[in-house]
Amino acid sequence: MTTRRAHPARCRAVGLPAALAALLVVCVLSLAIGALPLAPSAVWHGLADPASGAYAVVHQTRLPRTLLGLLAGTALGLAGAVMQALTRNPLADPGLLGVNAGASAAVVTATALLGISSLSGYIWFALGGAALVSVLIYAIGGGASSTPARLALAGTAVNAALYSYVAALELLDTGALDKMRFWTVGSIAAAEPGTVLRITPFILLGTVLALGCAKPLNTLALGDEAATALGAKPALTRGVAIAAIVLLCGSATAACGPIVFVGLMVPQVAARITGPDLRWLLPYSAILAPVLLLGADIVGRVVARPSELEVGIITAVIGGPVFLLTVVGRERA
Amino acid sequence: MSAPANRLATRNLTLGYDHRQVVRDLEVEIPDRSFTVIIGANGCGKSTLLRALARVLRPTSGTVLLDGKEIGAHPSRHVARTVGLLPQSPITPDGITVAELVGRGRFPHQGALRRETPQDRAVVERCLAETALTDLGQRPVSSLSGGQRQRAWIATALAQDTELLLLDEPTTYLDLMHQIEVLDLCARLHAAGRTVVAVLHDLNQAARYASHLIVLREGEVIAEGAPDAVITAELVGRAFGLRARIIPDPETGRPLVIPLPSQVTAK
User: Fold this and answer.
1) Which residues form the signal peptide (chain A) (predicted)?
2) B134-157 pLDDT, tens digit each
3) DSSP string computed for A180-195
């Protein structure tokens, strides 16, 4: 028996290797492009050969930067896709539910008031802040009986309050926060090998939890009644999904600062290829988000030579119009 | 407490939302292999009862029994393989195709990591065929007519492959032609050996399609049994506050309810 294959199914199967190839290309470019441009062969030597002149620049700065972009991009893309599924709101973003803002506020508090200035110190604050806000939003948003609109509104309100708090602390305490200046706009430029090692376990755990949620989230998308009748456990699934979001957003924000719009844009593009099936949408988002993040970072390195623009600024510049187009597109549809 | 003779039954079932009691001390059994229709005026608790039977609503007190055991005490996957539900207003994900939607009904038969098996695909094909949607499998659900969309949702519940199928107001919001289409489908599913339980608004449709009626008023069962025995002018008056004359349906011989104007006395 030959089943007529779904159009999306064909795209999905072909698209995955293509997306992986794009990721590989962007990683190589990210290693090659910078103040000291390297040919691809030099990149290879720089990676593998300690005697090479490029070894230091590749290993000390570009490799950590690229790996951080990879990790943070995956984290934000996955978190965005999980959020959009959880809230049934295609405009959801790690920013929308206030999770990034919670992590930022906690990091800024730790830096300004407690004098904690190392990632290994404030990553716990970032995770705590992200978790606190997630629980708060879940409670304000109505818990198990929350509606997408109510959740989104709760997130927007908490977001506004927390970013005012961050801005107030920055104005009051310029000294301690000065070295955080790049962090607050979102940057992967200052990545060190330690940064990458520090956040890898959190992002790995968050990724496993997020991908594990794909199937139950697929049933939750049909409404809580249908999900329960299908044998899923909506409250448990929401809990695990929120834990994944906290781990992914908290650690990405701790390492890079709040990077906006990546979690919004990537799942939307991915959904055009995969359709709404999260078993495909989540892996696609995890692969395409670092392509966007590293791509934006590379653009930031070359547009303002000899200086650099932070990746958070570039994603905001691209993301703003995409966000508006999405809203307009949905109004028309 | 006597052991129920049927797979699905309730004992002293009290249901409500927050502090509002909707159903009180209800004892009903769903006869196995019946097409049971629950009817009653708006707010009488018929959908609430169905939701409890589907384990979607937790009882305030009392129990829903599945195979003689409290439904909540069964593993949720076992319940999902035994009782299927078409909710009153399910959510259609953006861009989902008919076949994909129906495939999500296979959830209780799949492991956490296992992908779809050939058996899953075969069941989906069969459910599409049963609901006459085979040719529309690759179409987005959003592009279907109301009746087709409802059939797609019924196919999703069918893909659960359960012996009992509960449908919460499956004909509401459909025009008459699509209502009949959906009810005919339910009748076919019943004839194929399933126990079908539906909440319906239309008395005459209930009388025509049901093999067993449960009539609710203000959260209590006021009549149950075969439509011929249950539907009387007196009952319609008690259940709906409606004066009516009952005649045999010229097409089926089942009872047909003719509502009378509220001001005029029946002859």
Assistant:
1) none
2) 999 999 999 999 999 999 999 999
3) GHHHHH---TT--HHH
Alpha-carbon distance of B154 to B131, in angstroms, equals 8
Q: Would you say residue A5 lies in a domain?
A: no
In a domain, A8, yes or no: no
Name the one residue in this structure whose structure tokens are 């991009």. Answer: A73
Token reading at B180:
């009949």
Average pLDDT, chain B: 93
Report CB contact under 8 Å: A223, B89.
yes
Q: Which domain holds residue A226?
A: 18-332
What residue type is A199 in one-letter code?
A: I
Of B119, B123, B125, B189, the closest CA to residue B154 belongs to: B189
Structural domain contains residue A2: no
Contact flag B100-A226 (C-beta cutoff 8 Å): no
**From CA B67, how far away is CA B8, in angstroms rounded?**
6
Q: What kind and span of H or E run contains A17?
A: helix A7-32
Give B137's contacts in chain A (Cβ within 8 Å): 4
DSSP classification of residue B140: B
**What whole-number percentage of chain A has pLDDT above 70?**
91
Instruction: Report the pLDDT value the prediction gives residue A156, as an integer from 0 to 100.
Output: 83
Q: Name the residue among B84, B107, B138 with its Cβ closest to that of A4.
A: B138
Please give the structure tokens belonging to residue B194.
């399933």
* Chain-centroid distance, C-alpha A204: 13
Nearest to B76 among A90, A226, A233 (CB): A233
* Interface residues from chain A to B (CB-CB < 8 Å): 1, 3-4, 6-8, 88, 90, 212, 215-216, 218-219, 221-226, 228-233, 271, 275-277, 279
Give the separation between CA A99 and CA B58, rounded to whole angstroms. Answer: 32
Q: Shortest Cα distance from A14 to chain B (angstroms)?
A: 18
pLDDT band at B166 (very low <50, low <70, confident <90, very high): very high
Q: Is the peptide bond before A306 cis (omega within 30 degrees of 0)?
A: yes
Distance CA A232, CA A218 (A): 10
Residue with tokens 């509960």: B166
DSSP A93: -
> How far is A42 from A53, CA to CA, in rounded Å?
9
Q: Give me the number of domains chain A comprises.
A: 1
B48-85, pLDDT tens digit by residue?
A: 999 999 999 999 999 999 999 999 999 999 999 999 99
Taking contacts as CB-CB distances below 8 angstroms, the residues of chain A near B101 are 222
Which of the four pLDDT bands, split at 50, 70 and 90, describes residue A289?
very high
Which residues is B30 bridged to in the sheet? B8
| pLDDT tens string B204-231 | 999 999 999 999 999 999 999 999 999 9
Residues A69-97, mean pLDDT to the nearest whole number: 88
pLDDT at position A77 is 96
In a domain, A215, yes or no: yes
CATH number of domain containing A185: 1.10.3470.10
